[in-house]
Design brief:
single chain; alpha+beta; Glutamine Phosphoribosylpyrophosphate, subunit 1, domain 1; eight-stranded mixed beta sheet; about 20% strand; globular; binds aspartic acid
């Protein structure tokens, strides 16, 4: 390559960042997801990835899987807001920056499929509340019962006894349960565990999906980071993809996953990019950051992955041709 051409490429950042075009060993297909609950989610996504399917279909399948399981923090089995209502948030994004999202969706079993419908069939990105539900019903989704799951009912009853509303996220290490234990509040109840996953398919294309019932006992109408493109999920097919879990308000403030992807664009590894985003949150308000948890996971175009969290206790799950395991995230504080 002559010097002029090299300089031209450098000015676009191409020479500074090893693009997949020049890379011989891309780790694909691969799927990574938040938390230990990501293991069966990855397995659902892997069925599609290993059959040479598209990453967008794989992440959707992973999200559908977890929405079907009774869980504190995802799907209709999730914990309610402070008015006792389960409201669901979900989003999906593909390699073309197509994206769809729903927020505050009630009584619909698979918010991720509604988000996919928003992406595939409307000119919009986000539908919320009543409008999202109306759209779902018009598209053949069934309205489910508003009754809480048994575990959610019990947890909500306990919470009502205190009823001291603080938009607080639990920190896993406050409970001495070991790194892979569920994510408990200090009194023993879990209050967040959003499922975010990103995948690269055999064609090297990236997609991501997020699904959650959001932070337990939130204000009715509150929207977290999870359904916000650039906060809870971001995909740039030239660079990489990232997703998050933890206190959504703090992730939104720094456009968390977009920030992670932009750091990867600058040449940072996925882990270093996640760390830089965590540092931004801590730097803004170190005192507050000491009381909350945020974790990011990211993947670049080579199929390299990494994570970082503010506090101890964040774990993530990885499935590729060479591994199928839970990793413990490094942390800042
Ligand atoms: N990020 C979610 C929210 O703020 C909480 C979670 O990670 O579960 O609603």
């Amino acid at each position: 390559m002559d010097r002029k051409k090299f300089l031209r490429l450098s000015s676009f950042g191409l020479a500074a960042f090893p693009m997949p075009l020049f890379s011989k060993s891309v780790n694909k297909p691969i799927v990574i997801s938040t938390w230990d609950s990501g293991m069966p989610v990855n397995a659902a996504a892997w069925k599609i990835l290993s059959a040479n399917g598209k990453s967008v279909d794989a992440v959707e399948a992973g999200a559908v899987y977890i929405e079907d399981t009774i869980d504190c923090c995802v799907g209709l089995g999730g914990f309610p807001d402070r008015d006792g209502i389960v409201t669901l948030d979900a989003c999906i994004m593909d390699e073309h920056a197509n994206c769809g999202s729903v927020a505050g969706l009630e009584q619909i079993k698979h918010p991720i499929l509604v988000a996919r419908k928003v992406m595939d069939t409307t000119p919009h990105v986000i539908l919320v509340g009543q409008g999202a539900q109306q759209f779902a019903l018009q598209n053949g989704f069934k309205k489910e019962s508003a009754e809480l799951s048994e575990s959610a009912k019990n947890a909500y009853k306990d919470w009502l006894k205190k009823n001291d509303y603080k938009p607080e996220i639990n920190i896993e290490n406050k409970k001495e349960n070991g790194p892979f234990a569920p994510h408990f509040f200090e009194d023993g109840s879990p209050n967040h565990d959003t499922m975010g996953l990103v995948a690269m398919d055999v064609d090297g294309n990236l997609s991501g999906a997020v699904t959650t019932s959001g932070m337990a006992y939130k204000m009715h109408g509150r929207v977290g980071d999870s359904p916000i493109i650039g906060a809870g999920l971001f995909v740039d097919n030239e660079v990489g993809a990232a997703t998050s879990s933890g206190l959504g308000e703090e992730v939104i403030r720094i456009c968390g996953t977009h920030t992670v992807v932009e750091y990867m664009r600058q040449g940072y590894s996925p882990e270093a990019a996640c760390k830089k985003a965590c540092e931004r949150i801590v730097k803004r308000d170190p005192k507050k950051a000491a009381t909350l948890q945020v974790g990011f996971v990211a993947m670049n175009k080579k199929g390299e992955y990494g994570a970082y969290a503010i506090q101890k206790g964040f774990v993530f799950s990885v499935k590729s041709n060479t591994e199928n395991q839970i990793h413990t995230s490094k942390y800042l504080l």
